[in-house]
Amino acid sequence: MEKMEFTENDIREMLDREAARINSPEFIEKDPVQFPRRYDAATDIELVALLAATIAWGNRKMICGSCEKLLGWMGGSPTAYVLDQGYEDLDPATNVHRTFFARNLQHYLRGWRLMLQRHGSLEGYARHLRIADNEAPSWRLAEGLGAIIAEANQGQPDPRCVPGNLASTALKRINMALRWLVRKDGIVDMGIWDVITPAQLYVPLDVHVGRTARDLGLLTRRQDDRRAVVELTEKLRSYRPDDPCLYDYALFGLGLESKGKQFCGS
To answer: Would you say 24 and 33 are in contact if contact means Cβ atoms under 8 Å apart?
Structure first.
């Protein structure tokens, strides 16, 4: 099939159109974002957002099933479950989602409990870490989370909870959770945080978003790593400086529809 040629203006219009189409209430019911949206307390929303994002790899239907199982263990107040150490009653060998087991969840929630005791909330910890002053707030938050989780587990990190290779990781899951917590258009994302602005977010890059971005000429780097996230986000900021991650919806939607189609930038 002959490749379609797009001008820069064509691409911008396409992204705006697709973002408006996908960023809708109908998106919520099949996406893991539905789970933090079930709660009112900020600490519950934060915890469920990070946990849902942590296991968000693979088939979306399977991810949502695993999230339902996880929330069933935690009951009506995930924050109380953590503070009461309910997770210690789990069999460590119980599977949560694919290669994430109850032992990984226990490792994660021990750190989360310590964080709540010291800082009151994830946003409070983010303020303590001064992530807003960092050029890459999500990576600074990941560094802090990894440190406090390790501290709560006798100094032992767990890459199933937070990636350790922060110099190279695309950090897709934490970037996705931050999109949920920070973007404020009131449609899909919840926008309960003020510690950073939507302008400071980075695109949650996975293989499908990366492929679509390359087809459109938005991304030249071949690896789906931190440098690719920075390159793509900077490009999207040139279209929408205040809210580059709005276009995450567009790239997701175009990725679903691009089978059998080819795109190339101008």
So the answer is: no
